[in-house]
Design brief:
Catalytic activity: 6-carboxyhexanoyl-[ACP] + L-alanine + H(+) = (8S)-8-amino-7-oxononanoate + holo-[ACP] + CO2
Function: Catalyzes the decarboxylative condensation of pimeloyl-[acyl-carrier protein] and L-alanine to produce 8-amino-7-oxononanoate (AON), [acyl-carrier protein], and carbon dioxide.
Oligomer: single chain
Protein name: 8-amino-7-ketopelargonate synthase
Distance between the termini: 55 Å
CATH topology of the largest domain: Aspartate Aminotransferase, domain 2
CATH architecture of the largest domain: 3-Layer(aba) Sandwich
Largest sheet: 7 strands, mixed
Mean pLDDT: 96
Strand order of the largest sheet: 3-9-8-7-6-4-5
Number of domains: 2
Low-confidence stretches: none
Cofactor: pyridoxal 5'-phosphate
GO molecular function, one term: 8-amino-7-oxononanoate synthase activity
Number of strands: 13
Shape: globular
CATH class of the largest domain: Alpha Beta
Helix content: 40-55%
Radius of gyration: 21 Å
Amino acid sequence: MTNPLAYLEGELNDLREKGLFRWPRLLEGPQEPVARYDGREVINLSSNNYLGLANHARLKAAARRAVDELGVGSGAVRTIAGNMAIHQELEEELARFKRTEATLLYQSGFAANAGTVAALLSKEDVIISDELNHASIIDGARLSGAEKKIYPHKDVAAARRLLEESRGARRMILITDGVFSMDGDIAPLPDLVSMAEERGAIMMVDDAHASGVMGQHGRGTVDHFHLHGRVHIQVGTLSKAFAGQGGYVAGSRPLVDYLMHRARPLLFSTSHPPSVAASALAAVRLVQEEPELIERLWDNTRFFKNGLSEMGFNTGTSETPITPVMAGEERLASELSDRLFTAGVFALGIVFPTVPRGKARVRTIVTAAHTRTHLQRALDAFERVGRELKLI
């Protein structure tokens, strides 16, 4: 009998020949600044655990209480029987945090982006999107059926032209990441917001990598640029700086009410386990009570970036704790990552299709939990391996 999946082996062999076949490294213990991956203790520069909260005692205590009092699962989707008080409490806290009328939880940040875009738009509408926006925005745009118009990365003039030529559409939505996940640069949000207002477009920002990182208490790029009340849809995550799982949309009450009835990921996926919601709630409150966490994150970021720059590494256009070390060729990026791992530093190689061909890099993220000793050891390893590979 013919195996209809036989073609997969050929695809996999092609990946192997190009040096692109990689199985994820195995974490053997808690997510920490120094962690055990594949049996080796390494300085961890690959985690989105920006504030070092993934193993925080206060978050773990909140999760344990929720398990003891509420059990391990919600039992259903929100719209049937799984709408728990802890979900509502978290949404209310997030709305206060984001300074919006309401928020709505999704099971993941990916679902928040894709589900929201797909629910709000259809084939009569136009989506104007930065070329480097997250894959979840791209997939949501495809699912919506709306016309997609892509502008070059951070090209405000090009975005303006696309808005102007789309005036005949029923609705227009202008979408950007707040912080771009592979390059670590920040969207020109004030200019984009002004353009959206001038042309009556919906303004949407994916602030996954700005949540808990930018703005007062980590409220995101909208707060960073003082744009409260001018961005219609803000997407955030609970799985990075807030160290848990899930995403959310923040905006007006009508927006949230509509999405509760039309967003397919929410309608057809079981809601958060109570322990996950409880730990996220604890994280959001902790960040507001201890601003020194974010200050430490940025101090560490500046120290590490300066060290890489002084050695002569190309870190692209990064402005945030996401700092790529550009290698260019895929095999070179993978080799850099592998040699760093052997030297005691876990910094993941990022290659096509996650980034364009010729722009492969090792992507690093420092956290508030790293010490200067950790970071200096990592810099020493980068210098040694970088010279071996003639990157510096």
